Amino acid sequence: MSLISTNWLNKNLNNVKIIDASWHLVKNRNAIEEYNKEHIENAVFFDLDKNSSKKKYLPHGHFLPTIENHEKSISEMGINNSDRIIIYCHSDLISSCRAWFQFLYFGHSPKLVSVLNGGLKKWKLEGRKITNLKTKIIPSKYKASKNNNMIKNKSQIKENIKKNEFTILDARSKNRFLGLEPEPRSGIKSGSIEGSKSLPLSELINIKNNSFLNKQKLKNVFNLKGINANKVVMSCGSSVSASSLALAYSIINDDYMAKIYIGSWTEYGKQ
């Protein structure tokens, strides 16, 4: 169950571990400051920047950390391997899905990790309880294992342009995909990967409350793009909204294993 409702979480607040994985591309919002001011009761903060590997030539990417660093950071959050985890965010990129993807990649059971549909935006619109109290954390000893089948690298993406073994879906805006507007990160050219298709995340989300469209509407959107099989890899700017596409597709395809191009356009479009 990739998504759970605000109503479900409200009834199970004391039975799960809650993670705030908010991350913002825009510079005028600070996720950790927002978390400190208000969060769902007992939530701990997942810092995407700190829980990513930065490559010297791509300082603005969100590559996956080493398994040792992941184990360390998740242990410091007090998460155990057997915990039922609910991840939410207050981000237009639905950054909670990137944390969801990372937990799956590092071996947490798919049955034990879900994203809160609508996140904090929907939670607050419904008048549900929030707090600024610091969450008490008891460190754990989390153990991880990697699933390399869930990621593609640049060489595999280039090889696929020739072989066409899978379809690449790009979650960035249509204008960024078409190269009609500049990339928000310096040193990255405009445009898209040859042969890829555009599917802006905004087409899968209810803007009013940041929730995903219902299952039938999601099916319609993916079918319009000709996506109806497991051979699809998601991409975006730096693998954040790509993970949101992966979660959306997992809602309509039970057999789909989330796959993303981890470097995304930040790597591929580097000038």
Plain-language structure description:
By secondary structure, the protein is α/β, with parallel strands linked by helices. It has two domains: 3-125, Oxidized Rhodanese, domain 1, CATH 3.40.250.10; 148-268, Rhodanese-like domain (Oxidized Rhodanese, domain 1, 3-Layer(aba) Sandwich). The chain contains ten helices and 14 strands. Strands 1-7-6-2-3 form a five-stranded parallel beta sheet. The mean pLDDT is 93.
SS strand fraction: 15-25%
Radius of gyration: 18 Å
Q: Which CATH architecture of the largest domain is right?
A: 3-Layer(aba) Sandwich
CATH topology of the largest domain: Oxidized Rhodanese, domain 1
Unreliable stretches, pLDDT < 50, 5 or more residues? none
Strand order of the largest sheet: 1-7-6-2-3
Mean pLDDT: 93
Largest sheet: 5 strands, parallel
Number of helical segments with 4 or more residues: 10
Q: Would you state the CATH class of the largest domain? A: Alpha Beta
- Please estimate the helix content: 25-40%
Structural class determined from secondary elements: alpha/beta
The CATH homologous superfamily of the largest domain is termed: Rhodanese-like domain
> Secondary-structure element order, as H and E?
EHEHEEEHEHEHEHEHEEEHEHEH
In whole angstroms, the N-to-C terminal distance is 40 Å
Cα shape: globular
Number of strands: 14
Q: How many domains, in number, for the residues?
A: 2
